[in-house]
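SAMPLE LOG
Freezer: B-3
Tube label: C17
Construct: single chain, 158 aa
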Amino acid sequence: MAPKEKKDPKKGAKPGKANAKASAAAKATLRGVHSKKVRKVRLSTTFHRPKTLQLSRSPKYPRKSVPHEPRLDAHKIIINPLNTESAMKKIEENNTLVFICDVKANKRQIKEALKKLYDVDCVSVNTLIRPDGTKKAYARLTPDVDALDIAATKLSIV
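STRUCTURE (predicted):
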């Protein structure tokens, strides 16, 4: 059996500040942390759910494997030029070309498609939906470009 250690007179002999602190800590642990619960004062009658952290999405895989091609490209927007008598009159007198277009295309898209396909600048584009459900577009060209010339060379309708 090992010899017993001698008690040091400095350790545990004097009930001083250190002992008082230790006993206070022991009492606190016995009592527990939640012994003094304070009720929160509610100042409003309606309850608002607290705002929590909203993390941005980080998906494991893309939901679309391949992005689709543009639904309306220039060739889908402008279906065909119109060469009726009234359309020919517009070409000759008002410097305006007349086209049948996709119903979903807007004026800006029609203007861009004309620029891309026929290299002509439009002053304005007017549209209407015909009784048969198709869209007709009147494209007024700039004064430096002759609509009759474009109709003859690029559209070959005159």
